[in-house]
Design brief:
It is a single chain. Helices cover 6% and strands 46% of the residues. It is mostly beta strands. The longest helix has 35 residues. A 5-stranded antiparallel sheet has the order 1-12-11-10-9, with no helix packed on it. A 5-stranded antiparallel sheet has the order 2-8-7-6-5, with no helix packed on it. The chain has a 5-stranded antiparallel sheet with strand order 3-4-59-58-57, with no helix packed on it. The protein has 2 helices and 59 strands.
């Protein structure tokens, strides 16, 4: 102490020594802080792998989400519009007793009773514009879980429609797969980043967390005894089995070969109903076989590398098979698969038992009934659900849920009905405007995949093309169908190059189309023969055309440059080229008087050019998002435009002023049409949600145009 005292007070302190001591102290503190950070990060990383006793890091949202449990037609949207088609089915699941079907689309989740000849809509779960990504029923069928694109997890009471909880379970990462444990007490969720969580259904608390950093989870399944969790990943094409109690990965298998091709057909993996086997489907080299694994071999005595001690059967590996769907029968003895054919296989030997359906290409969903007597398939091209006998493949019954994936939507001549059709598959829908119900679902009588090209409102004919490959070149067969009966009217001849777009003449006597080589082809429907009239030399990638009301002029639009060529049909002469001035033009049409051509561009402008003088005027709609489609009323009192935000804007055609707007909707518009009396506007989005708007309901005060 005396030496310290003398050093500090009796002797003069060296400033250099003082600064050196301070620097050493600072360095020591920084090192300690760094060590503490490393320790905490390691603990956090360890918790990311397995932490089955962790508490939930999310807050439970107890708000009641919007539920419609008394469906009345016509169905009304939030802005008072009539909803005719719900949109494309993104996900679906059957209840364990096969009495109910839940389907998810952009508008929410719909619960159907499928016990009758035709399905009955029971409930509509509206989930705050959060598109459903995955669905699953609890084992007793009383609960329905929904995972969304935004990472939120919702649990519904199917009977009462009550929201049990709504939580941000995966913090923005889309929930791709869900599964309940056999006792219904736990719920497993997997997301786009390869993270798997287990939730307590009663408390909504997280009780487990698994991650192998393998990317998007494409399959998740509890074993029947609840001891194991099966996960399948898309990024590494890997199959993993976890021991939940021991918090350990007990089996992992990564397929070799073309692992990056699974985005075409996602891999799948499930436990058999008795829990003794696992079915997995992966891309391996030039095939996608189904492998059946023996669960009893998952123990410490079996080396993971020794595939032979685990694998029971391999289906299709030696025959270059690609399977789109696979599922166990209720007894786990056989496997139902779909691709070009629907087939039944022996799960133990891998032998084909029988072919149930031939040439039923790309069935999107297939499952066996609980009693093992029948199976259900779903084809998204035609929106058709079909029940068949498992023994023979014979059709028992079929139904359509009227989810119109509309490629084109039209008012029929009577003004009381609307026609919509699928872009691919040949399924059409006729809607009653007053009741809001689907009045008819005629299907084209063909097994070939049909692409919708054009519709004739005068004769109610539909023009389609089916594509084939000959000598490494694409060829098309063009067919005209009667919409009401689904019967073929005639096959067009004289041209085989695929069309990008086409239209019927007003009297239905001609078809005019633009093909993939920029040629304009005209068919005379009396003879069925067609010939190239002229070729658009200045444009590249001509993808759309419009016919003037007097059928004297035709406008062709380029998908690459955005420019438009205006031609005289009879003379085959180019009148002028309309170049984009304010952004890429992606929608063209003639005004009802036939004196001008209009083009919508990506800068929220409508460019109208007089055909004779070439004078151009512009209309700006004031939308924050680019316009996607537009239509003008028959008497040219107003224009109806819809932007990417889904907002419908009404504009006085003469004064160029906005006279009305609707609130934004969840989806953009794909096409638009105005009824013959000008009182209604029809829009449909790429997923097939059809909306019918009453113009008078959305006009500003003192701005009502006379229809």
């Amino acid at each position: 102490m005396r030496k310290f005292y003398n050093l500090m007070f009796k002797r003069r302190l060296d400033p250099r020594m003082f600064m050196t001591g301070v620097m050493i102290a600072v360095i020591v503190v920084l090192i300690l802080l760094a060590l503490m950070t490393i320790v905490q990060s390691k603990k956090k990383a360890a918790n990311l792998v397995v932490s089955s006793r962790a508490n939930s890091e999310v807050e439970i949202d107890h708000r009641e989400l919007s539920i419609i449990d008394r469906i009345e037609y016509p169905i009304r949207g939030d802005s008072g519009e009539t909803i005719l088609g719900f949109g494309k089915i993104e996900t679906l699941v059957l209840s364990p007793d096969w009495k109910r079907l839940a389907t998810g689309c952009d508008m929410g989740v719909f619960l159907w009773d499928i016990t009758g000849e035709q399905p009955a809509l029971l409930k509509w779960f509206q989930n705050q514009n959060e598109a459903p990504k995955s669905l699953t029923f609890s084992p007793d069928g009383k609960l329905l879980a929904q995972g969304n694109n935004e990472g939120s997890l919702t649990l519904w009471d199917v009977v009462s429609g009550k929201t049990l909880f709504h939580i941000n379970a995966h913090l923005g990462a889309a929930i791709t797969r869900l599964d309940f444990s056999s006792d219904g007490a736990r719920l497993a969720t997997g997301d786009m980043n390869g993270l798997v969580k287990i939730w307590d259904v009663r408390t909504a608390k997280r009780i487990g967390r698994f991650s192998d950093d393998s990317g998007r989870i494409t399959a998740i399944s509890f074993s029947p005894d609840g001891r194991h969790l099966l996960t399948d990943s898309a990024a590494t094409n890997s199959l993993n089995v976890w021991d939940i109690e021991k918090e350990a990965l007990i089996f992992s298998k990564q397929a070799k070969g073309l692992g990056n091709m699974h985005f075409l057909i996602p891999p799948t993996a499930i436990f058999s109903p008795n829990g003794k086997r696992i079915l997995s489907r992966h891309v391996i080299e030039s095939t996608q076989p189904i492998v059946v694994w023996d669960v009893n071999a998952f123990d410490e005595t079996c080396e993971i590398e020794r595939e032979t001690c685990l694998q029971l059967a391999s289906i299709g590996r030696t025959e270059n098979f690609w399977f789109h769907n696979a599922s166990f029968s209720p007894d786990g003895i056989s496997i139902l698969t779909t691709w070009e054919d629907t087939e039944l296989w022996d799960a133990e030997t891998g032998a084909r038992l029988r072919v149930l359906e031939k040439d039923n290409f790309l069935i999107d969903y297939a499952a066996c009934s609980p009693d093992g007597q029948q199976y259900l398939t779903f084809d998204s091209r035609t929106n058709l659900f079909t029940f068949r006998e498992l023994e023979t493949g014979k059709v028992i019954r079929s139904f359509n849920l009227y989810y119109s994936t509309a490629g084109r939507t039209y008012f029929l001549p009577d003004g009381r009905h609307i026609l919509s059709g699928t872009m691919v598959g040949g399924q059409t829908f006729i809607w009653d405007v007053e009741s809001g119900r689907c009045a008819q679902t005629p299907s084209l009588k063909t097994k070939e995949t049909q692409h919708t090209i054009a519709y004739s409102s005068d004769k109610q004919w539909l023009l389609t093309q089916s594509l084939s490959l000959k000598n490494n070149a694409r060829h098309s067969i063009f067919t005209i169908w009667d919409v009401q009966s689904g019967e073929k009217v005639q096959t067009l001849k004289g041209h085989t190059i695929p069309l990008n777009h086409g239209v019927f003449s007003k009297d239905g006597s001609k078809v005019i189309g633009v093909d993939q080589k920029n040629a304009i082809v005209i068919w005379d429907l009396q003879t069925g023969k067609g010939a190239v009239s002229f070729v658009c030399r200045q444009l590249s990638s001509a993808n759309r055309l419009a016919l003037s009301p007097n059928e004297q002029w035709i406008a062709i639009h380029s998908a690459r440059s955005g420019d438009v060529e205006l031609w005289d049909i009879q003379a085959g002469a180019l009148i002028r080229i309309l170049q984009q001035q304010y952004g890429f033009m992606h929608h063209i049409f003639f005004t009802p008087d036939g004196e001008s051509i209009a083009a919508v561009n990506e800068k929220d402008r409508l460019q109208i050019t007089a055909i004779v003088s070439g004078a151009t005027r512009e209309i700006t709609f004031g939308n924050k998002n680019p316009l996607k489609t537009i239509a003008i009323s028959p008497n040219q009192n107003y224009a109806a435009a819809k932007g990417k935000d889904g907002r419908l804007t009404l504009l006085n055609y003469e004064t160029m002023k906005i006279i009305g707007r609707t609130p934004p909707t969840v989806s953009i518009a794909y096409c638009a049409a105005v009824s013959s009396d000008g009182r209604q506007v029809l829009t449909s989005d790429p997923n097939g949600c059809i909306r019918l708007w009453n113009v008078s309901n959305h006009l500003a005060p003192n701005s009502t145009p006379t229809p």
